[in-house]
TrEMBL record, chains A, B:
Signal peptide: none annotated. Acts on leucine, isoleucine and valine. PANTHER family: BRANCHED-CHAIN-AMINO-ACID AMINOTRANSFERASE, SUBGROUP IIII AMINOTRANSFERASE. This is Branched-chain-amino-acid aminotransferase. One of its GO terms (molecular function) is branched-chain-amino-acid transaminase activity. It comes from Winogradskyella pelagia. Its EC number is 2.6.1.42. Pfam families: Aminotran_4.
């Protein structure tokens, strides 16, 4: 069934739905995708007519540049449904702006804002049944761009594919995580691509993370590559430290992702009268605070995990356990954020964006 | 036509050949591929039966991890044909070892040596007509591995595809190149993946290189990310400096690729009685040598380009032009290397590997 709409997006609907075969109570993150996907190709110097089509495998040349040179960027977003069946996004302008900032750093042409929003909204409405109401349920949205030109010279491609795929999700991490402060490996360099959601930033973390996991730590808190003295981010999350009642998080720079959840936490802290210092955070200071008892919490903030409390950290072969508080900032921010996201509370900053 | 051979590789030959449509005198690097390709999938914890099949587009899920997290590594090699029609590789063991070193850093399972060599040799023999004799002609060989598992969790994939594709080539750079010494952007961090042929390392260079190109420089010589004071490599080439009659090149470390052409140049220099210092090279020293006239040459060394002379460099908005010498080290090493590669000269180090 093919529809062409006045806004140029061609829609080819799936004849059948897979939704009946999905166990929504036992979703593993990022494995199940909805019935449709959004696809838009860049050819001849411009983004061509976008399509929404049945979710399916695609045909691509082995010489496509993405396979050889990692010319690819992505975003992570979520949609939420309230009890009235209304669908909301959370600060989607931030993700749109960031994917284009990432794209520019990777020499990928910027995507069109009208195509992004129209495509995403039509896609969400078409697969609306897949978005389950209830706090904790969400639709994980993965926009991404890949270089498709079939030529292996090491230079920016002339053709690209922009896609959006949707994966229904429960909370990403359920348990507090144990983390390791990086001492040897690094995530990114000054003057590099750490601030971008560049595909290659992620695979580079897999091996060091696997070593951490063998030692019983789920995540690494990356430190600056030069000295390993300053705590930066967790690779899939930004990171916050609570010392006494003050929050501390690292400033953005060209190594650290400008996280949407991070900046929302900073705003919420201000609303709540919680002091939040955005400054360099040293390993030394956090260890000292852990020893003298002033370190109350560490938590990660990111779209997939929302807020992810840390129960322990390791550095220089010493493990520091953190007591889990009943009235933690982590649970406070998580509740505040999720209530805004799910249209349960007021939204003083205008972060909700209804998909109509 | 399907053949199964005793060494497990399944061969499906192409019914027709594209070779008649190829203009071998006007090849653009990396755009034309031969009639066949080698494919081997990793599933259920092991590399499955490899196949050689007609070169063709492949079907892959949009959620394949390579698209999202850049979990991919590659190699660059060449095959040469002498006037008797014999086919040679150049130090292929180095490439095999390096792709597995790269794979390990990206949490990709190591490939099997028997599959690599049998697959590559059978593929080259099947597409032997595509390898043209004559110095300067070669078959560029691109082995690569991509993460294919259709799931977007940020962790190592459970399934991969190892491929080899072949592209007939002329010399990669024909003219001396003008280069810019990096002052702001960086290629890799200490503790990162710069030493690996990780896909993401390459796309990260495209944007800074495009800025250099707008200023009239084809390549960037990357400097250390911490201080930008030491010259490291050129992204697709290692780099050598000739000061008076001494060669200088940076030592390998976790930021710099362990280049096969680089180490071959170091060996040849020893054979020829040319002093070669493998040590840190500062921007300051090279600028001083350019000013006092002791800087005689700069050249890149890599598989695609073999030896690529540099005619000028820029740093801090100053351009330093280099006189092109008649009897340059660059042309000496290029001739020595190509004569070994094409079976024209003796091969005292046993670098040639005949494909029989």
């Amino acid at each position: 069934m093919i529809e062409t709409n006045p806004n140029e997006i061609v829609i080819v609907k799936s004849e059948t739905s897979k939704i009946g075969s999905v166990d929504f109570d036992n979703l593993i993150f990022g494995r199940v995708f909805t019935d449709h996907m959004f696809v838009c190709d860049y050819e001849d110097g411009k983004w061509q007519t976008p399509q929404i089509m049945p979710y399916q495998a695609m045909t691509i040349e082995p010489s496509a540049r993405v396979f050889h040179y990692g010319q690819a960027v992505f975003e992570g977003m979520k949609a939420y449904k309230d009890d009235d069946g209304r669908i909301f996004l959370f600060r989607p302008d931030q993700n749109f702006n960031r994917i284009n900032k990432s794209a520019a750093r990777l020499a990928i042409p910027e995507f069109r804002k009208d195509f992004f929003f129209e495509g995403l909204e039509k896609l969400l409405k078409l697969d609306s049944d897949w978005i389950k109401p209830g706090v904790g349920n969400s639709m994980y949205i993965r926009p991404f761009v890949i270089a498709t030109e079939p030529a292996i010279s090491a230079s920016p491609a002339m053709s690209y594919r922009f896609m959006i795929i949707l994966s229904p999700a429960k909370a990403y991490y359920n348990e507090p995580v144990r983390v390791l402060f990086a001492e040897k490996y690094s995530r990114s360099a000054d003057g590099g691509v750490g601030f971008a959601k560049a595909a290659g930033n992620y695979a580079a973390q897999f091996y060091p993370t696997s070593l951490a996991q063998k030692k019983g730590f789920q995540q690494i808190i990356w430190t600056d590559a030069n000295t390993h003295e300053y705590l930066e981010e967790a690779g899939t999350m930004n990171i916050f430290f609570r010392v006494n009642d003050t929050l501390i998080t690292a400033p953005n720079n060209d190594r650290i992702l400008d996280g949407v959840t991070r900046k929302s936490v900073i705003s919420l802290a201000k609303d709540l009268g919680i002091e939040c210092e955005v400054r360099r955070v040293s390993v030394k200071e956090i260890k000292a605070a852990a020893i003298d008892g002033s370190l109350k919490e560490i938590f990660g903030a990111g779209t997939a995990a929302v807020i992810s409390p840390v129960s322990a950290f390791e550095h220089a072969e010493e493990v520091y356990e953190l007591e889990q508080l009943d009235n933690s900032y982590a649970s406070l921010f998580k509740e505040k954020l999720m209530n805004i996201q799910h249209n349960i509370s007021e939204d003083p900053h205008g972060w909700r964006y209804e998909v109509k």
